[in-house]
Sequence to fold (1011 residues):
Amino acid sequence: MFGSNLRLANLGLHLSRSHDMHMRLGFALMVIVASFGAQAQRDSILLKSVTVYGLPEEKYLAGSHVFQLDSTLQRQQISGHLGEFLSFQFPIYFRNYGNGMLSGISMRGTSPQHVAVRWNGININSFSLGQADFSLLPVVAFDDVKVHVGGGSARFGSGAFGGSVLLTSADDQDHPVSFIQEVGSFGRYFTSLRGAFQAGKLSSSSSFYHLQSKNNFPIPGSDERQTHASFVQQGFVQHLQYNLSASRKLEFNYWFHDADRDIQPTIGNENNADTQADRSHRISFSYAQNNKYGLLKAGAGIVDDKIIYNSMKSEIFRWIGSASHQYTFANRLNVSLNAEWNHIIGKMEAYGAEEPVEDRVDLSGSLQKSFQKVSVAFNLRQPFVSRLSAPILPYLGVDVELVENALHRLTFSANGSKNFRAPTMNDRYWLDAGRKELQPETSYAAEVGLRWRYQTFLITASGFGQHIDEWIQWVPEPSGIYRPENVKQVSINGFETGMEAFFTFGEYALRGKVDYQFTRSITKQAHTADQTAIGKQLTYTPVHAASATIGSTFRTWSSSFFLQYTGTRFTEASNSPVYALDPFAIVDFSIGKSWTPKQHSIEFQLLVKNVLNTKYQLYSGRAMPGRNYNVKVLYQLNRKHK
Amino acid sequence: MNFLNVLMYSCMHNLHICSRHLSYVFCISILLYGCAHEDATPKGRYESGAVIVNEGGFGSSNGTLSFYPLNAGVVEQNIFRNGQGDFAGDVVQSIAFHGGKGYIVINGDNKVEIVDSNTFESIGTITNEVLDKPRYIEVINNNAYISVWGPYENGGFSLVDSYVLVIDLMTNEVIKKIETDEGTEQLLRAGNYLFASNYNYGASTTVAVIDPADNTLVDQLEVGSGPAGLVIDANGKVWVLCTGDFGSSNGMLVRINPSMLTVEESIPLHINPDVDLAITPDGSSLVYTGGINVYSMPISSTVAPDSPLFIASDVVSNYALGVDPTTGDIWIGDALNFVSAGKVFVYDAMGNAKTSFVAGIGPTQFMFK
Fold:
């Protein structure tokens, strides 16, 4: 039953949608073997394996897709932020307020607050703003990136309307030392240093990263350079694991991220002096044990998010507790019960002298049952939020193997869900404006899809729909004051299709992936002041979006080609063409060479960004750079494998 | 919603009930209008009509100017693009015309764009490191007088250093920084002096008086909380619209003798009016608004009207008021929620609806030429 062992360090080495992986019969439980245990020591003493079982997240999300990002491509964009990386991997739109500035995600026609971002199981969206700033999520900080598309509140809680981004920082005992140095255009320098060791039952993995950029790029279409846009980001990630026994472990994760930036002003702006600092501490501590009664996990954590805009500070402090239990019955029925608690303290002047405190408790359960050609998953969550009533949130999904033979595999998937988003701290507690009595936003989402695998081809297509109600908007009162209200309804319909292929010709290997998405995201009801939006596409939500990546290798040479196409985006609610942003296509290209003398790996890479020198904007009035260059050197010490 | 937006919410009522304003320019417009008619050949596409100043979305650099030819009646959007972007700039605050040129104050961009007033082709740009949140401009003797809010206090949104900047238009160099009370807003030339209302969302109470002969601050006249709109009446007197303290319904109309520099009359309005003050073509009646209520008061009156002249019931978020100096038509700008392009509603002098059309995002000022 536990035949499919997967070393943690190997997670993410495939450009495969992990969905396929978990469809394998007999793959009821994925066994994660702590990496140091599975490998030989340098002195060739093999430690006894320590196993802690965990079911992959996607198992409980039968009927929808969980994409695992390709770690090779991830490494090629290692110094970028997650928004830059994801926009080439999927037809996902990011509204970036300039280069390296605030980056808000838009998945499946929803807004940035409608994607739940989780790090090691903790929601890390800003609790004051509701969204995650993807420019503060450096690719280098994560060992594993997964994206679940579509409604998933039953599994991931508040805000999982358009999708969820699941980030993991973990162990990397495969590489006791790794070092990356990059130098790029506009005074860009990136350094990353990572080390790992193990001593007895303790293993540790630490990484430090630093990114800085003058960011004074020539503004395409102008003879001026961008001013006041420099930034520095740095961080530290620590993973510690102590194995109490073969089936019990303690884990500690700490991630500190520190960013200071000059706010990139709009094109043509003079005398701008706005600055923003973001400092986030995220700590989680957990205990896991696995025995015949199942897998028990208990954890506690702290998240402290500070934003200092000019010298105005806002801080949200959270205590987090969680517990879960998973059990697999002999008849291939998986059951999981989870509880999660967030104690939230809002520390900012704008909330008034008395710091608002909010508790959010989520109780949820999941069932997954595999039949011969069918996998069914059912999740149910009941959130409890201080002083408001949250709905009960079901998710039901099914995968059916329609055809399965040596050449073909055709899978049908379908899911339906109810989702919710709790009002943010700003929405509820902003002095003289927030409303404590705001209701959560709710949505009904559904999706049907087909996946056809033929040899090394994979073709996917799915149609999706979502209706969002009680959408919170800040709207003007007759007095002119803006206050949040549950006023908007939005209906989203669309389809997406993609193709992946893999070829080899002797020593030459080629891997490609292309995706397209069509999304109609239409306002159905709105506030009196927003009536012109009714029947119109949401702003900053492209109807057409496409992405493509092509990677090829020849012996020790590799190259990658990244394409992103984004259609017209309206920035004005009635979809006036006067204010629309033009469609654009941008291409990045990289070429690399590696050497592996003995235990060492050395890689050299040249990355050319925006090869076509496209002039484009992701947010109205904010310039993005034209063609620019980045050179990378990577060194890794590889642990000897037995 | 980004952090900027959230910050914006914090001062949203300020930003949204404050802003813009004109009025002093009416007299200039009348002059220009007269000049234009003496010349037989058209000087440009935008020689005669109404210019609508649209702020644009805050921080989106999409403030625009719309043009409405009064005879043709088909509005043209986005008639001026700055050198760098696709629009006029970020938060277009106001425009003034002088000597065949238009001076566009770009509040968010901290600059003034100079254009040909008939073609709206760019002539130049005024930038300076002390231009920090410019509001309005007046041109006297080839000097530009720009009201400037100046910086916010550290860590907040309180104004701490406002002034009127005097710029030599030959060199675009600052020749004088005239310190005033905070929140310096509209400018009006009357008699020998330049009057500047110190608004500051109701926190300032004075009108600054500047002598353009030597660029000195002559006086700061106490008028009432939140002086904003300024006009000259048929008798050459200056009227100041004070918006009052927030939520206190203590707005006032104050009459100033522009040569004696004395306050002659203070009329309580029993509301918190919006910032704009306009005057009928003959200079006999003042026009102001409180939300969608449009009021008219004869300059001879000593009490405010009990009821509005009319209610602009189609308007959602009143953000601009103007009176056509030829026809007396009353124009209201509806900013909606600043996410949609706003609308302009035109009423005749009695308040009967005449027409309406879509302008740009956040219509904030009308200039008739």
